[in-house]
Amino acid sequence: MTAPNETNARIVLSRHTLATYEAGAIAEAEPVATAAMIRKEITILQAFAMAHPEKAITLGDLVRRWQALGDRLKERLN
User: Among 4, 27, 35, 56, whose Cα sits 20 to 30 Å from the Cα of 65?
Assistant: First the structure.
């Protein structure tokens, strides 16, 4: 189980990374590697949510934003 501080730090890091991609960095990213990174981040956040149910809403919202970013990337690839 992860410590609450580690969970909070991961949430902050994930939000910052996501904001960078949402601001347009995804257009410059390598699509296959970016898709893999998005899937990995979603898996990590879901594991944190399971370990820390008190953060489930926050983490769930973050997962949905990552999933939306992944969906936009898929559209770009098609």
Answer: 4
Domain of 49, in residue numbers: 4-77
Looking at residue 1, the DSSP 8-state letter turns out to be -
Q: In angstroms, rounded to a whole number, what is the distance separating the alpha carbons of residues 71 and 58? A: 20
Residue 31's contacts (CB-CB under 8 Å, 6 or more residues apart) are: 73, 76, 77
**Total structural domains in the chain?**
1
- pLDDT, tens digit only, all 78 positions of the chain: 567 789 999 999 999 999 998 888 776 778 888 899 999 999 999 999 999 999 999 999 999 999 999 998 888 877
Contact assessment for residue 48 and residue 10, using Cβ atoms and an 8 Å cutoff: yes
10 Å Cβ neighbour count for 6? 13
**Minimal CA–CA distance to 39: which of 75, 4, 69, 15?**
69
